[in-house]
Amino acid sequence: MKIVGVYSIKGGVGKTSTAVNIAYLAAAAGWRTLVWDLDPQGAASYYFRVKPKVKGGGRALLARSQAMDDAIKGTDFERLDLLPADFSYRNMDLLLEDVKHPTKRLGKLLKPLADDYDLVVLDCPPSISLMSENIFRAAHALLVPLIPTTLSARTLAQLGDFLAREQLDDRLRMLPFFSMAEPGKRLQQEVMRQLPDQYQDFLQTIVPKAAEVERMGLRRMPLPAYAPGHAATRAFQDLWRELAAAI
Amino acid sequence: MTSGTAGPRDYLLPDDDDEGAGAVAAIRSRRHCATDSLAREHGRFYDSFDWALYQAGAALEERLADDGHGPRQLLWLDLCGGTGAAGRNAMPGPGQVVTEPPGLLQDLPPGPVRERLAPLVGIRRLLPLVEISAVVETLRLLNDDDKTVARVQVLRQRFRNPDSGVEGQLGTRLRLLPVRGYDQELADAAALIEDELQLRPVERPLVLEALAAAGRRPGAYSSKLDYRLDPDQRADAATRMIHCGLLDTLEANVPGTRANLDTEFLHDLRVATRRIRSALSQIKGVLPDQVVADFKVRFAWLQQVTGPVRDLDVYLLDFPELQERLPVPMRADLEALKTFLLSHYDEEQRRLVAALDSPEFKTLVRDWRVFLDAPLPREPAAPDAARPIKAVADERIWRMFKRVRREGRAITDESPAEDLHELRKSCKKLRYLLEFFQSLYPKSDTRELIKQLKVLLDNLGDFQDLAVQAQHLEETAVQMHREGAASVDTLLSMGALVSTMLSGQARARTEFARIFQGFDEPANEARFKSLFGGGRPRGSRPSNSGAEGLAA
Predict the structure, then answer these.
(1) pTM exceeds 0.90
(2) Which CATH code for domain A2-246?
(3) CATH level 3 topology of B9-213
């Protein structure tokens, strides 16, 4: 079972749509896939038409492994399940402080699912926190969407520094890629030309900014399910292929 | 029912709705649902030749989605057995995406399906037994959020036997599939199908229906001996039955041996040959002398021509273990041995195939079958042919037991290796006799005796096999040296291996006395005596010949 975190320090960079679409494509390719919507806003749960509610909330999930099993919902798509968000996830750091080995809890929770799933995609809340440290320790790879701006370059450097400082970078592969790109913009072109050279695992796929992607909220399903031929769908397919090869 | 354990449930469609249109329309009229576009799926069910998965209550499906263009998946299925819904449906277990069809375990990438397969199939090849192609119509049952809460599929399927080419239609199934976390909705859907539509659950899982349609008989092959003999049966009739079973096993393994699908085909073929030879020589006075003499020679030939490939197989199978016996720095030096063995493999396999295609082999099998199928002679010449098989079996086993005991007791620490070899041969004969005739005796008794005999055989086997292997390895080293196929380091590593073998042999020798004592216990003798030793000594037994009638 491979664990992939879709993570960004910044919000609004296409993180949830990446998690949902990648998970959908993985399931379509035969991988038994679980999306864990860790973002208390519950956007991924919304896309899959599942209520963002877990019985007993985050506290129950941390306490009993059975709670996790009970909370998982099948989506509309074969082989693709969801562990929904819960509003209580916003206090996850506080809850984590109360458990033993607070930075390794998430990995421990996922272990019993190894027989059920080939891939777990974590839709992570933005920010660096106890929660994100859990994710860094549990995941095999971090998919990091970046809008091609200089500010994004800075946050990526911050993330890289953090992983190196915590000595997480030798087993966790950081896989940045450009998201919501507008190649017509000169400034973005500059960033897209220069930034990838500075990172060993920078993925080649560029996911364009597209109104069709934003319509996921209206259609309430993954993009490839309703717009299979769209350029953004093709980009996500490329991204999935790159990710699958990397893990 | 918990969310994690609910599996699909299959229902039969009535004859007047064999396309499922009526059922689909009925569900649509009663439930909020959506229809997916028709999908085509191709699947293949696999098992090993000896039905390792079926025997363990499992099945393996290779599924190609999207009309063969989608990903290739291996799906584990539990055939739970039992009654009710559990026995009729296969429960899906783990799945694994692969790029190639399954074959030998060693070629399968790591994953959850491989993990389940490993302890069951071992070195046997997974063979495609039946193919299924299905047109799948999927109906998704929705809740108020238009979220899928259960699926109903109509599966119109055809099967094909990939070996015989036989194909045809299977009964159309309606399948209810759970969506994880929606148990109540699943129960509602089941109630709709069972109570309102009045559909009957299927009798058995799809895999078993398809195998039967394709003419496969799950569990039909086993290399184990399993005869049901009647104690009063004429000895010649029972003996022919035993031989028929052995010949069936031998013949069943010929195609797999020719194609070298896996090493067990040849192994089973050779075991069957050895058992035939043993039955010929050990069930004495039952078949005509000249028949026994003729076929003993011919089956000995078969044993001999099948030997070289088996020797190579054993080497190659044991290779990792042989390597591990060496100190780490020497292990790489042994690789040249493997290369050498592999370079001779094709040639030996070609010779083996030529032998199996030869007139000698074909006439051997045919002649033996003709003899076994011929009507029993009314007045057989062989002295014990018309006696009840139980009496003959008692005698043979009891005599062989006494021989094993006598030979074993005669062995001292000073005895030459040949004496232990002789004892091993006698033990093997005793074991085969016990196995041939086990249905004539209480099962628990013979099983216990065979188990105990096995301990002794293992010890004697270690002693002899290690000696033979060491000698064989020395000869191979000489041959490799002659052909310039071995460096000094390789020869040294082989020498080191020979020395571990010889010290293993010495160890087996020191353990012999203790192990034989276990066999030679009074309790064991009592068990043999009570089971087999009740008969009269051979000289005074009544005979089936006219002499008995005259005496009376």
Answers:
(1) no
(2) 3.40.50.300
(3) Hypothetical Protein Pfu-838710-001 (2.40.320)
DSSP sequence for B501-535: HHHHHHHHHHHHHHHHHHHT-HHHHHHHHHHHTTS
Chain A residues lying within 8 Å of B65, measured CB to CB: 30
- Is the CB of A117 inside 8 Å of chain B's CB atoms? no
Query: In this structure, which topology does domain B388-538 adopt according to CATH?
Result: CHAD domain (1.40.20)
Residue in chain B nearest A71 by alpha carbon:
B181
Note whether ipTM > 0.90 here.
Answer: no
Task: Identify the CATH assignment for B225-384 out of 1.40.20.10, 3.80.10.10, 3.40.50.880, 3.40.50.720.
Answer: 1.40.20.10
* Tens of pLDDT, residues B59-97: 999 998 766 676 788 999 998 765 555 567 788 888 888
The torsion angles phi and psi of B94, rounded to 5 degrees, stand at -70, 160
Domain B9-213 and domain B225-384, same fold? Reply is: no
C-beta separation of B221 from B252 below 8 A: yes
Ramachandran sector of residue B152 (left: φ over 0; alpha: ψ -120 to 50; beta: rest): beta
The two tokens of residue A111 are 């272990």
CA distance A151 to B518: 81
The one-letter amino acid code at B153 reads Q
B145: Cβ contacts below 8 Å, ≥ 6 apart: A49
**Neighboring chain B residues of A220 at a CB cutoff of 8 Å:** 146
